[in-house]
Design goal:
By secondary structure, the protein is mainly α. The chain has four helices and no strands. Helices cover 87% and strands 0% of the residues. Involved in transport of proteins from the cis/medial-Golgi to the trans-Golgi network.
Length: 203
């Protein structure tokens, strides 16, 4: 529930104005910190689960941790983009507000530096897009692994149940063999007694 709340707040970042975007960022960061604190307690609680549920609980905690880390990365990426955008706006306003006079030594505009800065920004944007794409691919891979682990866990439980049934059958067989052993010994004793009586009284 807390993760979904953070995701819904992330959607407010793009629509927030300059005055309130900082408040939204601080609120999201506080919620993320709270989730990380809860995840630490969940890890402790998952280690105290019964053995047959411990692995499943740990997988759920790890998935939540990865989702929150992805949200943290998305927040930092947004903050970086906002910082670059604000820096560009400040530089543009400074350039537009600047007054030039005759024979002013600062009337030249550093075109090369501006182009280099623009190329650096484009490179940073491309790097962020690649990072987001890589994170999306990693998330999809982890979800596939989660499905595979669930299937493996189910198979392990089925095998464990079969082994439990096999142990029960083996115990019944051992019990039956033990009973048959006494029946055989009893039958031998009765047969010997009958043979003794026949020899004793009929001869």
């Amino acid at each position: 529930r807390q993760v979904h709340e953070v995701q819904s707040h992330m959607g407010r970042l793009e629509t927030s104005d300059k005055d309130s975007v900082h408040l939204v960022e601080n609120e999201i960061q506080a919620r993320i910190d709270n989730i990380f604190s809860n995840l630490e307690r969940l890890e402790i609680l998952s280690s105290k689960e019964p053995p047959n549920k411990r692995q499943s609980a740990k997988l759920r905690v790890d998935q939540l941790k990865y989702d929150v880390q992805h949200l943290q990365t998305a927040l930092r990426n947004f903050q970086q983009r906002r910082y670059l955008r604000e820096q560009q706006e400040r530089q543009r306003e400074e350039l537009l507000a600047r007054t030039f006079t005759t024979n002013d030594s600062d009337t030249t505009i550093p075109i090369d530096e501006t182009l280099q800065f623009n190329e650096s920004l484009q490179s940073a944007h491309r790097g962020m897009d690649e990072l987001i794409g890589s994170g999306t691919s990693i998330l999809a891979g982890l979800r596939d692994q989660r499905v595979t682990l669930k299937g493996t866990h189910k198979k392990i439980l089925d095998v464990a149940n079969m082994l439990g049934l096999s142990n029960t059958v083996m115990r019944l067989i051992e019990k039956r063999a033990f009973q048959d052993k006494f029946l055989m010994l009893g039958g031998m004793a009765v047969t010997c007694l009958i043979m003794f009586l026949v020899v004793q009284y009929l001869t």
